[in-house]
C-alpha cells in the first residue's frame, strides 16, 4: 500500500519532530510523483506550500523547484509570495522565480519584472531568465519551436526519453535549430550531434551574449550528451565544464545542475573540484554535491571512484565551517547513494508510471 497523502504531509512537514532531512527529501520526491496525477495535484500543492515555514533553505528551495515542475497555475500565488519575501534565503527566492518560469503563465510577469532590480544578483538573473522564457513560450516563435521539439523528441533516442518518465522543465529551452552556414534553410532534424558541439560551445562561453541564449546552449549540450551517441558525450561535457569559470554564480550552479541530470562519470572530477573549493558560492557547491550523489548510480569506474566520492561528501557533510546548504546537500546526496544501492528498496515513485 502506498503511503497516504496525510502520512506524506506529516513526514514532509516533520510533524513528529523526528523525521530526518534526507527522509523528508524522499517524501518530497514521492509527493512530486503523486502530484503529476491531476486528482492529487491540488492537495500536493497545499502540502508543499506549507513547508515554506521550515528553517532549512535547502528543503525550501527544493519545495519551490517541485512546485514549478508540477506546472500548475494554482501554485503561482505561493511562489510569488516566496519570491517577494526579501527576508527569505536568496537560493529559495531564486528557485521560486525559476518555478514561475517553468509554469510559464504571463500572469507571473509583473512580479518577475519587479525583481529584475533585486539586490541579489542570482535573483535578478533568474527573474530575467524566467521573463524571457515566459515571453518565448507564449510567442509564435516559441510555439513553433515547441512543435519542432515535440517532433525531435518523438524521433529522439528512446532510451533518453525512458530515463525520464516526465522530463524536467528546463529554465531555458534547448535550441531546436541551428542556422546553416549559408543562412539558407535552418537545420531542423537532429541538431544534438557531435558536429554541433563547437557551435553550442561558442554560444555557451560568449559572455557578451544574453544569459538566456547561453542557457539555451547549455541545455543543447546536455541534449548532445544524452542523445548524440557515445563519441559526443565527453566533448559536450568538456564544453560544459569549460564554463565553470564563468563570472555568474547562477550560470555555474546551473552547469552543476546539468551534471546532476547527466549522472556521467566524466563529470566527477569537475564536480569534486567545485565542492572542494571553499571560496565557491554555496549555491554552486550545493549543486555539485547533489551531482556527485547522482553520478554513482551509473558510474562504472569501480569501487575506488565510489569511495572517493563518498569520502568527499562525508568530509563536507561533517565540516562545521561549511555553509549549511552545502553540509545538508552532502547529507542528502549520501542518503541518495545509500538508498540507490540498497537492493531492498522499491523503485522510486517518481520514476514509476502512475
Ligand atoms: Fe537553482
Ligand atoms: Fe538546487
Mean pLDDT equals 91
Low-confidence stretches: 347-354
Largest sheet: none
Number of domains: 3
Characterize the overall form: globular
The CATH topology annotation of the largest domain reads as: Leucine-rich Repeat Variant
CATH superfamily of the largest domain: Leucine-rich Repeat Variant
**Cofactors and ligands:** fe (ii) ion
Strand coverage percent = under 5%
Continuous helix count: 18
CA-atom Rg in angstroms:
20 Å
The class by helix and strand makeup works out as mainly alpha
Element-by-element helix/strand order: HHHHHHHHHHHHHHHHHH
**CATH class of the largest domain, anyone?**
Mainly Alpha
Strand segment tally: 0
Helix content: 55-70%
Distance between the termini: 14 Å
Q: What is the correct CATH architecture of the largest domain?
A: Alpha Horseshoe
Pathway: Protein modification; eIF5A hypusination
Subcellular location: Cytoplasm; Nucleus
GO cellular component, one term: nucleus
Protein name: Deoxyhypusine hydroxylase
Can you give a write-up of this model?
- It is a single chain.
- The chain is 63% helix and 0% strand.
- It is built from 18 helices and no strands.
- α11 runs antiparallel to α12, α12 (211-227) runs parallel beside α14 and α17 packs antiparallel against α18 (324-340).
- The two termini are 14 Å apart.
- Mean pLDDT is 91; it is low at 347-354.
- By secondary structure, the chain is mostly helical.
- The protein folds into three domains: 5-137, Leucine-rich Repeat Variant; 169-246, no CATH class; 248-354, Leucine-rich Repeat Variant (Alpha Horseshoe), CATH 1.25.10.
- The structure holds fe (ii) ion (2 copies).
Amino acid at each position: 500500500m502506498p503511503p497516504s497523502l496525510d502520512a506524506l504531509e506529516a513526514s514532509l512537514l516533520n510533524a513528529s519532530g523526528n523525521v530526518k532531512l534526507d527522509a523528508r527529501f524522499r517524501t518530497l520526491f514521492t509527493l512530486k510523483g503523486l502530484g503529476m496525477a491531476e486528482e492529487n495535484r491540488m492537495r500536493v500543492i497545499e502540502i508543499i506550500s506549507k513547508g515554506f515555514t521550515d528553517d532549512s533553505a535547502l528543503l525550501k528551495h527544493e519545495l519551490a523547484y517541485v512546485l514549478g515542475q508540477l506546472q500548475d497555475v494554482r501554485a503561482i500565488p505561493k511562489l510569488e509570495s516566496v519570491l517577494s519575501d526579501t527576508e527569505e534565503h536568496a537560493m529559495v527566492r531564486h528557485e521560486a522565480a525559476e518555478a514561475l518560469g517553468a509554469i510559464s503563465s504571463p500572469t507571473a510577469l509583473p512580479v518577475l519584472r519587479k525583481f529584475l532590480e533585486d539586490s541579489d544578483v542570482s535573483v535578478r538573473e533568474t527573474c530575467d531568465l524566467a521573463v524571457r522564457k515566459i515571453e518565448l513560450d507564449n510567442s509564435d516563435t516559441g510555439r513553433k519551436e515547441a512543435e519542432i521539439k515535440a517532433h525531435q523528441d518523438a524521433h529522439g533516442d528512446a532510451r533518453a526519453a525512458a530515463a525520464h518518465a516526465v522530463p524536467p522543465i528546463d529554465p531555458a529551452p534547448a535550441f531546436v535549430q541551428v542556422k546553416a552556414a549559408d543562412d539558407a534553410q535552418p537545420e531542423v532534424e537532429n541538431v544534438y550531434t557531435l558536429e554541433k558541439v563547437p557551435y553550442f560551445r561558442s554560444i555557451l562561453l560568449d559572455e557578451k551574449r544574453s544569459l538566456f541564449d547561453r542557457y539555451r546552449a547549455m541545455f543543447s549540450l546536455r541534449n548532445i550528451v544524452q542523445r548524440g551517441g557515445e563519441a559526443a558525450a565527453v566533448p559536450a561535457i568538456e564544453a560544459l565544464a569549460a564554463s565553470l569559470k564563468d563570472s555568474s554564480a547562477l550560470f555555474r550552479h546551473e552547469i552543476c545542475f546539468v551534471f546532476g541530470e547527466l549522472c556521467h562519470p566524466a563529470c566527477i572530477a569537475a564536480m569534486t573540484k567545485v565542492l572542494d573549493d571553499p571560496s565557491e558560492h554555496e549555491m554552486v557547491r550545493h549543486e555539485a554535491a547533489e551531482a556527485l550523489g547522482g553520478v554513482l548510480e551509473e558510474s562504472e569506474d569501480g569501487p575506488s571512484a565510489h569511495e572517493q566520492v563518498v569520502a568527499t561528501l562525508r568530509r563536507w557533510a561533517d565540516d562545521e565551517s561549511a555553509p549549511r546548504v552545502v553540509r545538508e546537500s552532502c547529507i542528502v546526496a549520501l542518503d541518495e547513494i545509500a538508498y540507490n544501492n540498497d537492493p531492498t528498496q522499491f523503485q522510486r515513485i517518481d520514476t514509476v508510471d502512475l
